[in-house]
Design goal:
Blueprint lengths: L4 H22 L5 H7 L17 E4 L3 E5 H11 L11 E4 L10 H11 L1 H14 L2 E3 L6 H8 L6 E4 L13 E4 L2 H8 L4 E4 L2 E8 L8 H12 L7 E6 L1 H4 L3 H9 L8 E4 L3 H9 L3 H8 L9 H5 L7 E6 L6 E3 L7 E3 L3 H8 L5 E6 L7 H16 L7 E4 L4 H9 L2 H6 L4 E2 L22 E5 L15 E5 L2 H10 L11 E2 L5 E2 L21 E2 L36 E6 L6 H4 L12 H4 L18 E2 L6 E2 L1 H10 L4 E5 L11 H9 L1 E6 L4 H9 L3 E5 L13 E4 L11 E6 L5 E7 L4 H9 L2 H6 L4
Parallel strand pairs: 2-3, 2-5, 3-4, 5-6, 8-9, 8-11, 9-10, 14-15, 14-17, 15-16, 17-18, 22-25, 25-26, 26-27
Antiparallel strand pairs: 1-7, 4-21, 12-13, 19-20, 22-28, 23-24, 27-30, 28-29, 29-30
GO molecular function, one term: 4 iron, 4 sulfur cluster binding
EC number: 4.2.1.3
Cofactor: [4Fe-4S] cluster
Length: 754
């Protein structure tokens, strides 16, 4: 039986009437995305239509999911909200704080020792507030959500950008910062600008070496890392129906890499099969009663250009396997073009590591198809040229693939089986030799490949591809190897061509597991004590941020003018810093240390205008804070791309940065800044970025008139006394301005005014 089946049945009980009313108000057929949005309005029954990309709308999500790295700060904030229990079903998943090094058993034991304090905190706070807790080793949050909690037509938010993975089961699942999660856990509405809609029509059928991963790799190449910003991507067509549910999840998962609000697919037989296989036939029975409401209207899919803001069409029968990268997930290269691209760009051709897993590609089907390639290599006497590692998506997946001999197949090739956790995908990889900084190539089935993300080495060229292509490239040890046309030499000197991968969509004998790792909360958590030591370097109780004093900000210093790509990895790195995710003061020592200073092209080296000397970004900002001097950060396009980590907003807020002024924002980061009481501003004229000088002092001239739709005027005073006055746009509405005035959204919740 499904978790929270009563809640799911309630969603379906109201869906038909709400969607019918929305169709009447909008005056046309509806996409699946619109059906889910309108059926989850905070007001209940729709009373008006909304303008895409313009109207801010209050929603009522069905559930919340948190991973351990972000859950710490989210739950520390929730403790301030004054609630006795979460208002909607909520889960916490321990998957980020487990480092991959030796192998699953050893690595999990080390994590349970090193992060015991954090795991104990998350366990106790979950127990107290009615939150389901998934223990370390249980699996990766998004795989567990797909296996246990996702359901067609639902709306979920999660404190991780890849929450969107649940779109593979027909949800609108959206990544947010912890403050947004706190709103929903506290029983408040959740605000989102009504998204634009991108339709992707899939025709044909995947075949040969092409996998679902190649669909999103192609879409990322088309749309780029910011092409989906402010939009939901809805996939449809016969090609979509021909794909497995977990394959759909892979596609939705990497929608985060194009900046999309979320991605989704309509309810179909692949979802029925997956739900039944994961012991949720009760959801199938309930969903089938409203099946027509769990997909887009026929007219929409017949004439998509009339109903979507943008339409992309991909013929799966003609789609070629892709390898995206390095350093960005949207640089797509068909496998047939990789040789010329790699040579032309000087990419290292030798593949050092192949890695399969992460929340993107760790399903039974993924593991089975990759194992089929390994099995061929072993059978033909081919010695792998690269090292190889896998991270099963969940304990249920691991147990089942061990039972079915898939792990044994991998181990015949010397594969390291890491813990059921994120591991290398998020920088939790103690890779031997990475500290040497050598130029090298790795291939993986993850979602992101930013510089230093996997192993901390800025010279590691990471390429994203499907699990089966990872296996082939790792076996060959050659980035230019094309398994569709090339051969390998076996131990007898014979040329062998690998056959296309095969693998069951679902295990023939069903899924199996002895201990999935779930801990149900106490029915009454009032007596549960949540202890946080005042001397801890891992956890720190939060103090409210100060409210705005009602005056213009004046005499602010430029902290950094960031050059080029500045993701949340640049603003608040993961890897070794994950251990401080529950301690705001300590983790603030990584603030913007990865951002490149536009004035010297160096990272973590900015000018302290009080002394004239150069120092680390956090050190300079702490000096400004100690002196009572406000500061601002200036950035380029798509600032805050990547993970949902709100630490990238909380750290500058905590250290005294007043505003972030950029050419454009990634959606989640802009919202996170707003929630923490920061000013998130964009240049009205992008060319004004070039006017910002290293020794600038900034004065806000009309912040006292802060209002929706009204640009702010900023005066930049240069070292020679000259000035540039620029306009800065913003997207704040009245409620969000209230967050700024109060000092943060949480301050309003705690005061009972939200």
């Amino acid at each position: 039986m499904a978790f929270d089946i009563e809640m799911i049945e309630k969603v379906y009980a109201t869906m038909a009437a709400r969607v019918d009313k929305a169709r009447e108000l909008v005056g046309r057929p509806l996409t699946l995305s619109e059906k889910i949005l309108y059926s989850h309005l905070w007001e209940g029954m729709p009373s008006q239509s909304f303008t895409r990309g313009k109207d801010y709308v209050d929603f009522a999500p069905d559930r919340v999911a948190c991973q351990d790295a972000t859950a710490q700060m989210a739950l520390l904030q929730f403790m301030h909200a004054g609630k006795s229990k979460v208002a909607v079903p909520t889960t916490v998943h321990c998957d980020h704080l487990i480092q991959a090094k030796v192998g699953a058993t050893t690595d999990l034991a080390v994590a349970n020792t090193q992060s015991k304090e954090v795991f104990d905190f998350l366990s106790s706070v979950s127990n107290k507030y009615g939150i389901g807790f998934w223990k370390p080793g249980s699996g990766i949050i998004h795989q567990i959500v797909l296996e246990n909690y996702a359901f067609p037509g639902g709306m979920m938010i999660g404190t991780d950008s890849h929450t969107v993975n649940a779109g593979g089961l027909g949800m609108l699942a959206i990544g947010v910062g912890g403050a947004d999660a706190v709103d929903v856990m506290s029983g408040m509405s959740w605000e989102l600008k009504f998204p634009k809609l991108i339709g992707v029509k899939l025709t044909g059928k995947l075949n040969g070496w092409t996998a679902p991963k190649d669909v999103i790799l192609k879409v990322a190449d088309i749309l780029t890392v910011k092409g989906g910003t402010g939009a939901i991507v809805e996939y449809f067509g016969e090609g979509a129906k021909n794909m497995s549910c977990t394959g759909k999840g892979t596609i939705c998962n990497m929608g985060a890499e194009i900046g999309a609000t979320t991605s989704t697919f309509g309810y179909d037989d692949s979802m029925r099969r997956y739900l039944a296989a994961t012991d949720r036939q009760d959801i199938v029975d309930a969903a089938d009663k409203v099946a027509s409401y769990l997909t887009g209207d026929d007219e929409v899919y017949a004439n998509p250009s009339q109903y979507f803001d943008q339409v992309i069409e991909i013929n799966l029968s003609e789609l070629e396997p892709h390898i995206n990268g390095p350093f960005t997930p949207d640089r797509g290269t068909p496998v047939s073009k990789m040789k010329e691209e790699a040579i032309a760009n000087g990419w290292p051709l030798k593949v050092e590591w192949g890695l399969i897993g992460s929340c993107t590609n760790s399903s039974y089907e993924d593991m089975a198809r990759a194992a089929s390639i390994v099995e061929q290599a072993v059978a033909h006497g081919i010695t792998p040229k690269a090292e190889f590692g896998i991270n099963p998506g969940s304990e249920q997946i691991r147990y089942t693939i061990e039972r079915d001999g898939i792990i044994a197949t991998f181990e015949k090739m010397g594969t390291k089986v890491f813990t059921n956790a994120c591991g290398p995908c998020i920088g939790q990889w103690d890779r031997t030799g990475a500290d040497k900084g050598e130029k090298n190539t790795i291939v993986h089935s993850f979602n992101r490949n930013f510089s230093k993300r996997a192993d901390g080495n800025p010279n590691t060229h990471a390429f994203v591809t499907s699990p089966e292509m990872v296996a082939a490239l790792a076996i060959s040890g050659d980035l230019t190897f094309n398994p569709l046309t090339d051969t390998l030499l076996n131990d007898k000197g014979e040329e062998v061509r690998l056959n296309p991968p095969t693998g069951d969509e679902l295990p023939k004998r069903g899924f199996d597991v002895e201990d999935a790792g779930f801990q149900a909360p106490a029915a009454d958590g009032s007596s549960v004590q949540v202890a946080v030591s005042p001397t801890s370097d891992r956890l720190q109780l939060l103090a409210p941020f100060e409210a705005w004093d009602g005056k213009n900000i004046s005499g602010a210093k430029l902290l950094i003018k960031a050059f080029g790509k500045c993701t949340t990895d640049h603003i608040s790195m993961a890897g070794p810093w994950l251990r401080f995710r529950g301690h705001l003061d300590n983790i603030s020592n990584n603030m913007l240390i990865g951002a490149v200073n536009a004035f010297n092209q160096e990272a973590n080296k900015v000018k302290n205008q009080l002394t004239g000397e150069y120092d680390a970004v956090p050190a300079v900002q702490r000096a400004y804070k100690a002196a009572g001097v406000p500061s601002i950060v200036v950035g380029d396009h798509n600032y805050g791309e990547g993970s949902s980590r709100e630490h990238a907003a909380m750290e500058p807020r905590f250290l005294g940065v007043k505003a972030v002024l950029v050419k454009s924002f990634a959606r989640i980061h802009e919202t996170n800044l707003k929630k923490q009481g920061m000013l998130a501003l964009t240049f009205a004229n992008e060319a004004d970025y070039d006017k910002i000088q290293e020794n600038d002092t900034i004065n806000f001239l009309d912040l006292t008139e802060f209002a929706p739709g009204k640009p702010l005027t900023l005066e930049f005073v240069h070292a020679d006394g000259s000035k540039d006055t620029i306009l800065a746009n913003h997207t704040y509405n009245d409620s969000q301005i209230g967050w700024f005035v109060a000092g943060s959204a949480l301050n309003l919740i705690a005061a009972g005014k939200a």
